[in-house]
Amino acid sequence: MSNSLNLEKKSKKIPLALCFLLLSSSFLVFFSSSCRLYNIERKLDPVNADFISKVKYIITRKERKIFLELPNSEKEQFIEKFWERRDPDQDTEENEFKMEYFNRIERASELFVSEAKPGWLTDRGRIYILFGPPMDRMRYPMGGDPYSRCREIWYYGAFPVVFLDSTCTGIYSLVTYDLTGMRQFNLMYMHELTKAQARAQQTFGKEKRFFDFKWRVKKDVVEEDRVEGTITIEIPYGNIWYKAEGDMLETVLDVRLELKDSEGNLIWEYEEAFAIAIKEDELKEKQNKMYEMEIPLILEKDLERLRQGKNLLHALIINRTGGEDLKKVMEFRL
Known about the structure:
By secondary structure, the chain is of the alpha+beta class.
């Protein structure tokens, strides 16, 4: 009887030992493969190293492995195919996805400069690149409520993304709350965030774009002692950051214009704040439509100086809600 019991006990131990051995072997294989790929990546030439670094947020594990294991002679073709697979409209010359992705990297680097690394490599930069500017961005400075200070909350619709600066030194980390009473919510939150990032690896949403504007000048009257015209500035509704106020989305655009002659002397200036209030349903319909601002241009002084050389018209637009600003310059001749 005792022998049978011993045999039974031994038979139960064998599968456990075998499972442990298999798990250990699997870990060693995975670890070995990861180290091998890491060493290959370290030896990449500057062009390929820059590519694998910049696409880290959208490249899949399988794509990364294939790219690193390819001979150098085939890596250029892989990069071309990589972007082709993500091109939303292959009938156009431009790859809108690629342009948007690198524009977001550039913009993230400009926006998040307070941390000890390039802005696009920060947590805020990663979320900004993957999902674009949020519809609402709440900032809580150092002097505020001690339970909410030094943090930012970004809203994509009703979905919040929280960043915490634990030392109030300008270095923000993506927050994963670990409150017992909220555990299920937190798991769901991170699950949804992970799913959203996975979707971004396959396709890049075009709904969220960068703050940009188009502008033009129309001269209606050009006389010896007077010039009249209109400066038109257009910004896609979908590029503007808003703040939720009740059932409305609101923001203010500050517009500053300066006309300077060829020597840099100020000839004309203009400044105005444009308030925008729009409902969310209306915003969805107007994503690709333009919010238009028409500014009167009247010049009656120093016209002779403007006729002598290359003048420059400077524009600065600030989106108060998102804290974004953009400057542009165009040549102005009489």
